[in-house]
Amino acid sequence: MATDNTARMATLGSVGAARSDARARTTRSPWMPELPASTTPTPPEGVDPAALLWAETVAPGGYTHLRVARGTRIRLEDVEGDASASVVVVNALNTGERLNIADTQKIPWQAYLGAGHPLLSGDGRVLATIVDDTSGSHDALCGASGDAWNEQKYGDATPEGPTPSGHALLRMAASKHGLTRRDLPPAASFFKGVRVADDGSLEWTGSAGAGTRVDLLAELPLIVLIANAPHPRDPRPDYIATPLRVHAWRERPTRAGDPHYDASPERERAYLNSIAYAELAGL
């Protein structure tokens, strides 16, 4: 019995020592979410830190994800000028409804993303609205970088490798919500611009520079998936990405009288579809 107790005490001692050692090695990564969000060192100007729901800096070649309520305002910031945010939004109440880039361009009669632009689903509802934009350098034509593209250009595309593709990162984010690659539509890209030339070719316009931001307003409860990886049209040979800052706080969703609500008959109908859906869901 004495031998058994001695062995037990030795085991407990080694576990305690291991625990103490592990806690002593705890470090704070600059890419960790700030918890609570009110502790962020960089709160958005004019927003009470106590009101923040999400605060995080996404690493270059990293990803993030979160479920947000209807009426959540999500701010993306290109801190150093080379963030590239590939964003997919999904209806959190029905994950079969998700961002449809074709309708996002077709309904507003505008191929280029900017302030006031709705992000639509294939069901004719507005999932989110771009309510503020100081960058103006975005893309709704190319989607996130794919595995084959990254493998050809950089030699690797795996999410745990040095040059993950945007799509690989989005798949990782989606998996946290029970979604697979089949659930991922083409993404909207923020902070890296592409325009269509007169001959139909795509022209790379790049970044608007450091310190720009884009604010998205959730018009329905959403799953938000974000990858921060180089845009597929980036002509530079190296894998270049810089931090992406994310903050979110509660506001009200779009309603009649807001400037973008009735900017066109098609947009008004899309917002009415979202409002009706939310009301039926008791939101």
Strand content: 25-35%
The averaged pLDDT comes out at: 93
Uncertain ranges: none
Nearest-angstrom radius of gyration?
22 Å
The SSE order reads HEEEEHEEEHHEEEEEEH
The helix count comes to 5
- Dominant shape: globular
How are the strands ordered across the major sheet? 1-13-3-11-6-5
Subunit organisation of the chains: single chain
Number of strands: 13
Query: What structural class should be given to the helix and strand makeup?
Result: alpha+beta
Helix content: 10-25%
Q: How far apart lie the N and C ends?
A: 64 Å
Number of domains: 1
- Report the major sheet: 6 strands, antiparallel
Could you explain the architecture of this structure?
The protein is of the alpha+beta class. The protein has one domain (33-280). Helix content is 22%, strand content 26%. The chain is built from five helices and 13 strands. Strands 1-13-3-11-6-5 form a six-stranded antiparallel β-sheet. The longest helix is centred in the N-terminal third of the chain and has 23 residues, at 2-24. It is globular and about 85 Å long. The chain starts with a helix and ends with a helix. The mean pLDDT is 93.
